[in-house]
Amino acid sequence: MSKIVIIGCGVVGAAIAYELSLISGLEIAVVEKNTPASGSTGAALGVLMGAISQKKKGRAWRFRSTSLKRYETLIPELEAKTGLDIPVNRQGILKLLFAGDDLEKWHKLQEFRATEGWKLEIGDRDYVTQHCPQLVNDNIIGAVYSPQDRQIHPVKLTQALVAGATANGVKFYFGVEVKDFVTQAASDKLSSCQYLETTAGKIAVEKLIISAGLGSTPLTQSLQQAIPIRPVLGQAIKLKLDRPLGNPVWQPVITGNDVHLVPLGNNGYWLGATVEFPTETGESIADAKLLEQVHQEAIAFCPDLKNATILETWSGKRPRPEGIPAPIIEQLSGYSNVLLATAHYRNGVLLAPATALEVVQMLLKAKI
Ligand SMILES: Cc1cc2nc3c(=O)[nH]c(=O)nc-3n(C[C@H](O)[C@H](O)[C@H](O)COP(=O)(O)OP(=O)(O)OC[C@H]3O[C@@H](n4cnc5c(N)ncnc54)[C@H](O)[C@@H]3O)c2cc1C
To answer: Residues near ligand 1 with C-beta < 6 Å?
Structure first.
């Protein structure tokens, strides 16, 4: 049996653990310093901007389409296996277009997506009024509707992945922090990681996957191969109204000017998120003014939100790699048995299934 250890139990580490648990003959452990989904995942809105993203080729699009397809099987599979409910919005994503937006670009994307079987509808202002009467703003010129994109509850998804993986034999160590590593030379050029030094003692490892989000930087530093990943803070709000916005039976995610309005059922909505880079001194402190801007932006296209009660506000830190595109899924330089699957920045929930499948492929091809 090959002992695979995953550090981090956000949506990415949990998805990797679950996909690996479907392969027989592996001994898998996950080490998480807090609880599942207590990092960036716990703050996410779970909007899966796949077909509606402008990505068309390369890894960026391949990962998005792979994830959307895997989600369609993964959710029923996990719900059947665990008995847990994973809230998914299957009514798609409606993206508002405003005066000055390049309509031609969207028509080209629509044609391109159609060649691969993905539907996009492009409608004018009347289309918006007819489908979503709650959206009222003179600058709206139309919308793009993507029926195959989804929104998913990130925490409940992660918990279901953990339950599914546990049922398949994966061992989870929660409340255990990885502090350091014991390594040895594997060849002239490569080292290998032998043990994790954790707050609960040593854990032996044959293959190591680092999915620790922002925690991946200090971990790679301990391995003398620091990978810079910076926090980009995001704040969001939970709102409650006395009735649903617009058509009660058609509640897609609405996105306008990079603000997402996510229906939750029972007249509840999530709204977010701000994008706040750290200061020059590296500080990352939530700015209340920026959250209010997001709130006002949403009221500007959906005036009924003025009547909503704010139930909760929160913030989280997205792990953004520095100088290279997100995410980082590759062998850690200098090591024969360490793989990085981290730094998913704004799309970790969307890309978790594809990341997990990629990691499985890399392990099967013995790339680490
Ligand atoms: C406000 C907000 C909104 C977002 N909305 C969306 C969205 O709509 N759609 C989308 O796709 N993405 C969204 N994201 C981004 C998404 O949340 C992240 O990309 C994703 O959660 C990253 O997952 P992860 O598992 O890599 O990291 P994390 O969730 O941060 O998990 C890493 C885990 O590693 C653990 N860890 C770290 N160091 C150690 C150590 N030394 N030992 C043991 N454990 C360790 C941490 O405790 C943590 O639980 C949003 C993010 C924010 C903040």
So the answer is: 7-13, 31-34, 38-41, 43-47, 177-178, 211-213, 215, 219, 234, 236, 272-273, 316, 318-319, 342, 344-350
Element (H, E) at 312: strand 309-321
Distance CA 357, CA 152 (A): 19
CA distance 41 to 21: 21
Q: How far is the CA of 177 from the centre of ligand 1 (A)?
A: 16
How large is the angle between the packed helices 58-82 and 154-167, nearest 10 degrees?
70
User: Model confidence over 35-81: pLDDT tens digits?
Assistant: 999 999 999 999 999 999 999 999 999 999 999 999 999 999 999 99
Q: Atom 51 (ligand 1): residue with closest C-alpha?
A: 44
Residue to mutate (ligand 1; options 346, 350, 358, 359; most atoms within 8 A of CB): 346
The CATH architecture of the domain made up of 230-321 is 2-Layer Sandwich (3.30)
Cβ 207 vs Cβ 64: under 8 Å:
no
Mean pLDDT of the chain: 96
3-state secondary structure of 85: coil
Please state the CATH superfamily assignment of the domain spanning residues 2-86+153-228+322-364 in this structure: FAD/NAD(P)-binding domain (3.50.50.60)
Beta bridge partners of 269: 239, 263
